[in-house]
Amino acid sequence: MSNSIHPPRIGGLSDIAADYQFVLCDAWGVIHNGVKAYTAAVDALRAFRESGKTVLIITNAPRPKASVLKQFTGFGVDHAAFDDVVTSGGAARDFLAARPGIRVFHLGAERDHGVYEGLDVVQSTEDEAEIISCTGLFDDKTETPDDYADAFLRWRDLGLPLLCANPDKVVERGHEMVWCAGAMAERYASVGGETIILGKPHRPIYETAMARFAELAGGPVDKGSILAIGDAVETDLRGANDFGLDVLFVTAGIHADVFGAREEPDGDKVAAFLAEAGIGARAFIPHLTW
């Protein structure tokens, strides 16, 4: 099986599940909306697992796994729907852990400070820091990247690299779009700032996922046996395509407005959207269901 810019519309994951032993599923936009779980999506993953197969959640959440699991519980995401979670925040932790004593200026909300728990890092002012660790905006309810225009120039002139712990540019929280660390990294790069990006669509987080699949399977895993599931073209779909994985495109997520009716997307519009992005999918579905 392979990805195509003219993927078929399927009725549920069960239509293609027999072709795969492993699922690598996005979180925000597929199994929850940042407020509550999508019950049918969670049920679909649980059904896949109950057939003797393996599910990993791969998320650009800028937090370690324990924090994401706690968040899932609050949203009503049944932990029986997956075997483990790989996070962008975890990849950022690995990066910082390899540089003990590094002086970090945290750019993001107070709730994201758990990413540093147990690490040998020194929280610093921007004037004393060696790196900006960006988990998002200080206040994503009221701010936009435009509010940081002067700061970006100041940090660039200080020679500070920006470690982006969440490559997503925007996400849907409930029914509102909020800015994420990926948008901050994009703007910083646009003024000549150095950026370091580890999550989707970049290779390191997929290599981490492959290693975890191999641990769970007790041996090497073929990429052809993995189906990636996601809703964001520049992170989920591009990352899966570049890594050589088939992908199921959930169209009622972040790009829903592009495809006409949210519940019954126009297949021609889906194909045109994928063609413009130069990205393919094995199939598409409005919401993940079994």
From TrEMBL:
Hydrolase as a keyword?
yes
InterPro entries assigned to the protein according to its UniProt record, in alphabetical order: HAD-like_sf, HAD-SF_hydro_IIA, HAD-SF_hydro_IIA_hyp3, HAD_sf
One GO term in the molecular function aspect is: phosphatase activity
A GO cellular component entry from the record: cytoplasm
From which domain of life does this come? Bacteria
Q: Which UniProt keywords apply?
A: Hydrolase
Q: Which CDD domains match?
A: HAD_like
Q: Which PANTHER family match?
A: 4-NITROPHENYLPHOSPHATASE-RELATED (PTHR19288), OS08G0542600 PROTEIN (PTHR19288:SF90)
Q: What is this protein called?
A: HAD-superfamily class IIA hydrolase, TIGR01459
